[in-house]
Amino acid sequence: MTTVFTGRIRPLSPSADAEVEAMAVDDGTIVAVGAADDLLRRFPDAETTALDGWVMPGLIEPHGHPGFSAILLSDLVVDLRPVLIPEAEGVLAALRAAVADAGDEAVFANGWDALLQRGLPDPDIHFLDELAGSVPLVVIHNSGHSVYFNTAAALAAGLDRNTPDPVGASFGRDAAGELTGVALEAAAVEQVVAPMLAKAQQHLPRILPAHLHDLASRGITTVSDLSWNPELNPLIDALRAQGAMPVRLRWYEMSRPGGVAAPRGEDDPVFRQTGVKTWSDGSPWVGNIATSFPYLDTAATRSLGLEPHHVGHANYTAEQLRTIADPYAAAGWQLACHAHGDRAIDATLDVYEQLIRQHGLTDHRFRLEHCGAMTPEQFERAASLGVTVSLFVDHITYWGEVLVDDLFGPEHGGAWADAGAAFAAGHRATFHNDGWVTPNEPFRNMAVAETRTTRNGYRMPGGTPVTREQALLAHTANAAWQLFSEHEVGTLAPGLFADFIVVDRDPLTVSAEDLAETQVTATYVSGARVV
Q1: Angle of helix 204-217 relative to helix 233-241, nearest 10 degrees?
Q2: pLDDT of residue 223
Q3: What rounded mean pLDDT belongs to the chain?
């Protein structure tokens, strides 16, 4: 049965400023767009649905973590994020209350951020032992790249002074070799939070659908997960069988030293693996990104325990990174590598170039993720290699002043996440959020990339703003292309799935300030309303 949807439609195809009156959908697929009278004549038996608002393609989150975010944003974890608790006193009060109510249960909390929640103490094992006593307590840093834990939590996770550091990750140790209560980077973090993940398994049938529905309510119709746990695949199959899958999901395997590439699957339009993910360096908020320039010597960096002239380091040597990535590249998988610092980006591009030449790759669409300190010259080099980029624009939204005044100064911090330079180099750049770090807010990403202004009204002193068209494409057509899904979604064009949203204002013509506040009033996937 054909349905003709009418309204003020921005297809974003063939150009961003196009506007049409109607869209005909049959069996979940767009069959025509154009004038309402013309489509009603062509499809005289069609049902008609009038859409009240502006209509545009469904938004695409190209670098999400819905599997992990569903857990960290659920009632299983104490939410300490500075977007909810801006003051240090509130963070400590929330932790004390959770410990008091814990009984025999472990307490897991997420969102500790000494850069935004000024005045937080050093959360070493002694402080957390004093705070929680015999209650296992794990506090995840807001970046997700480190966790803090007390002695009881170390025992629960089976960690002690003899636990070896995983490749590409580490546990903090004092001069005597004892654990200091910090784990850095994914492989070590996973060991500390393993008890929480095990407990969460029984709750996932409840919390994962709720999180996916929340994404759909924000206008996201396709989301990728760059840290997917394949053990969740049966749950996704069950949700699909129940008709409870409100978004399309593209997932990335987490690569590890010695990893073996999975076989290629079918081109499932709802749920499929797209590539593999690794981490070249860490987070600017904890001091472990690989840069050619030092952190500033400020009260903020001293509070992070960074010595004057501190320069972070990469998680892997270039040879280790190449060894990890090679079997996946050889099998034809897309590679996606987290890289913030300019030295990490150079090293990753070196590895990518070697793999591209070694395996004769053409349309590989290898990815760089976050790209905080990436320079215009590096954007140009990446584009020449066919490497694509996805920028974490909300680093500007929430930490813009911190980047400039506390961490890197105006030259390096002021040009952070330079989306305009990416587009100028010819990239089909995308924007994203890490869902458990900052809210999933695509329209705010667009506005911030356009103005380079923080939520407090501070304008970054460097970097290049993007145009409105570039901003819109970053969360639609460009993101579809980056996920090898341009033949399915990204614009409202014949032959693609009818994934679209209705919003309360024209996304092309409103001011940047109004764009950031855009409200989604309805979300459709394959022509069916899901929110």
Answers
A1: 70
A2: 98
A3: 95
